[in-house]
Amino acid sequence: MAGFLPRIYNAGMKPLEKTRFEKIRKNLVQQATGRVLEIGFGTGANFRYYENAERVDAIEPNPEMSKQAEKRIRKSKTPIYTYEAVAEELPFADNSFDTVVATLVFCTIPDPVKALEEIYRVTKPGARILMFEHVKMDQPLMGKTQESLTPVWKKLCDGCHLDRDTLDLVNRSPFEIVKVESYYGGLFLTIESRKPH
């Protein structure tokens, strides 16, 4: 079962990444500057796009995913340090990071509110939070479909919630939302927010 998620990821997500996903990731990650925290680096899909970061500290709780990232870490032009850790208990000091990157990961975090609290703790005042996530759709029928599929989907895909409203979670956090862009009819969003000074 341990290798199931990487196989699902490679079969389902990689073809999408070759197209528009790759462009969205690149545009988002290239904005990361200073000391960067990446939440849930998975197979390291973002690592090649860190062009303006001084260093990246990246967490991932699933060691099976981490193994697939090793080659991408070696190829990266930016120093990347990885940690087996969860977003709800970040192993970093307060006020450490200038930017946080999270792509297609908040759907799987068991306690996303706690994760946002931890991100708030470890970021400097004025830090940017750059997210690319799939979310619960506004259309009632699609939203209900996502809700009904989520229990089975969570079991198959490492706890992924199809119906998580990540934008609402960020809205209710202390972060200030700066910009939101919608893709695929609102199924995917990029969310840029900022920690107040």
Automatic annotation (TrEMBL):
GO terms for molecular function: S-adenosylmethionine-dependent methyltransferase activity. Transmembrane segments: none annotated. Pfam families: Methyltransf_11. Residues 37-130 form the Methyltransferase type domain. Coiled coil: none annotated. Keywords: Methyltransferase, Transferase. One of its GO terms (biological process) is methylation. The keyword S-adenosyl-L-methionine does not apply. InterPro entries: Methyltransf_11, SAM-dependent_MTases_sf, Thiol_S-MT. This is Methyltransferase type 11. It comes from Planococcus rifietoensis.
